[in-house]
Prior knowledge:
ABC transporter transmembrane region fold, elongated
Amino acid sequence: MQLIDLLRKESEQRLQWILMLSALSGAANAALVALINSGASAVYSSHAATQQFVLFILCLVIFGWTKVRAEVAGKELFDTAMARQRVRLMDKLLLVRLDRLERMRNTDIIATSARNIGHVVQASDVIVYGVQSMFMLVFCAFYLLYMSPAAFLAVGAGLGGAALYRHSSREQAREGMDRILATEGDLSHTMAETLRGFIEVKLNAERRDAIHRAYNDLVSVNSKLVNEATRDSVRARMVIQSIFYWVLAAVVFLIPRFSSVYSVEILEITAVVLFLIGYLAGFLDIIPMVNRTNAALKGLLSLESELDQLAEDPQSALPPPERFEQLELRDLDYTYTDPDGSNGFALGPVNLTVKAAQLVYIIGGNGSGKSTLIKSMTGLYPSACAGVWLNGEQVRPDTVARLRSVFSLVMSDFHLFERLYGYEAADPVQINQWIDRMGLAQKVRFENGTFSTRKLSTGQRKRLALITMLVEDRPVFIFDEWAAEQDPHFRDVFYNELLPDLRNRGKAVISVTHDQSYLSNADMVVRLEYGRIVATET
């Protein structure tokens, strides 16, 4: 069972401690029931019940202390396990190869992990209480055995019938829960896909209506599955409780006919059986929760396994090079793999040398391979790195991280982080001076380690992304269509001021561009067509 495996992996000692506390709580609870019966019998016989009362106080303290400690420790164990799960997923995500991540539905990572982890955390209270109820059932049953073997056998028969009923429906419940989680994943994916293709949806009424119908159908299916699961759960609870009420009827109406017990003992036995039925309800509540939690954990394990398959080779902890001299591409190539496993677009072989204090423009039509070249030469596509030489040394699988450390990059589909992660000590005065130079002083400021807003146009956010590159201050700056969303003024500033200034500071600058009018500024112009260099102009 995934739940038990998770908790044992997290801390088997803590799990044993929780189970021991729960057992003590169950034993103390059974003792409370016994002392209440004993005290009631003493009072019924006109005797003082002082001893029973003192023991009752002691057992109540033990019961309260162990119950609270078990619940708190159980909740902490679940929370710690899920915290480690979150960290583990992030660790695995950070190891994923970019080219493999691009082929998967990356929105599923967010939706699946958040939904499943959230469910496990929410279910922890009910599960811990259910485990305590199980121990209370066990110890109350032992007390019942001491009082009346006949009543114990009746309760045992009822428990056996309930267990058989639950076992017969367990597989159906598990399959139903898997289907619910699958449809919830489809709902999340459909919503994310709608947002990604919002322009196409807005422009096409037929597409919008079809997506709406498909989403409604998924909602209907999910609601139907949830309702079926609810009905099955309620029905199962009612059947099991009915079994125990029949047991109670047997204790009250049948056992006295075949036993020499006195009426007062029948009352005591009835009270114990009623306690059992009450705790049984608490125990039954955890069964659907455990099924759903196991399904959620199964989904998380499946996601972890998928991320493991997408991971790149472990990287050595190598420092960046002391200086950058040149980046050389020798017969660099990369081939995309289509979803059916066949080869897709191919880049290369590419031969190119970029040196420090050099400004290089890469031009070419859409689909010529410009972005693929950037991702290959920077180590984002590590399988292409055999054709990359850094400062005269060939990049190996275990030195890809060193290669990546020399680049600052803004891709056409860039992401602007709210915080300067990794550069928290950056001077805010200097950053705000750059913001002023970028013409953004009236829109955004850098305060308390964050940009005050990211609700800016794409071109304005690209200017902030350029500022983050200046903060990183790495040897090689790469811009992928950076000027495409800039107004004419900042396009001129970019090509005529910023890029030459970076070159004069000794940086190697690579700019992917369609702006033919600025090519005269470059030290080298590289033209790509169909994944190959067809011309190099210096």
